[in-house]
Specification:
Blueprint lengths: L2 H19 L14 H27 L2 H9 L3 H24 L9 H14 L3 H10 L4 E9 L3 E7 L11 E3 L15 E2 L6 E3 L2 E3 L10
Antiparallel strand pairs: 1-2, 2-3, 3-4, 5-6
Helix pairs in contact: 4-5, 4-6
């Protein structure tokens, strides 16, 4: 082997080693995390823009016919509750949906992966905002039903504060669960037997189980 061939092979080996340690990133993705001042500036700029956009949307909404109709005539509380239950189910799984977005990425897309993971974490628990809204307008309250689980502890059952043909209790939660079940604290599970659920705009048939109420 000549000296030229040896040098060329050594050069290729060095380049391969460099790529293995520090892979080339696709265009548009920074290799390193921005410094704290840059990140803070981008964060503040983003939220300032969001505030402006959201303020404009609320302004147009308040001037719209629907807004004024609700103010003048009120709203169907049963319909509102059903809509909020659907929103609850969507937001409850939204963190998982955001994380799934990372499946289409490759390890070298560090910027995209960091964004997907951060966004997934930020979406956790947003379904509790729905529960707060339902309680605030008097559409959700604990019922008299109580059960106990050896693994999770005492279960609280929830009832809509409107007439419902599906029965009193439509969901349950563990407000103060046992230590090993701490992650389920405050999360409501709904009886699919007593709720109208839709997947891809298609109604899901209610299962018939011992928990069904006709």
């Amino acid at each position: 082997m000549t000296n030229t061939q040896t040098s060329a092979r050594a050069g290729r080996s060095s380049e391969e080693a460099r790529l293995a340690v520090s892979p080339e990133l696709p265009e548009g993705f920074a290799e390193s995390r921005p410094n704290a001042d840059t990140a803070r500036s981008l964060h503040e700029e983003l939220f300032a823009r969001l505030e402006t956009v959201i303020g404009d949307i609320w302004g147009r909404a308040r001037e719209g016919r629907f807004w004024n109709h609700v103010l003048e005539n009120g709203f169907d509380r049963s319909l509102y509750r059903l809509v909020m239950v659907q929103i609850y189910h969507y937001t409850r799984h939204n963190s998982i949906n955001q994380a799934v977005a990372a499946f289409g990425a490759v390890p070298e897309q560090i910027g995209l992966l960091r964004f997907a993971y951060t966004h997934a974490r930020e979406e956790l628990g947003h379904e509790n905002m729905v529960l707060h809204d339902l309680r605030a307008v008097g559409l959700l309250s604990p019922s008299e039903t109580i059960t106990y689980c050896a693994y999770k502890g005492r279960a609280t059952y929830w009832s809509p504060m409107v007439d419902s043909p599906t029965g009193t209790d439509f969901g349950w939660s563990y407000e103060d669960p046992l230590h090993d079940a701490a992650d389920v604290a405050g999360r409501i599970a709904f009886f699919t037997e007593r709720a109208d659920l839709f997947v891809d705009d298609q109604a899901v048939e209610r299962p018939i189980t011992p928990w069904s109420k006709r």
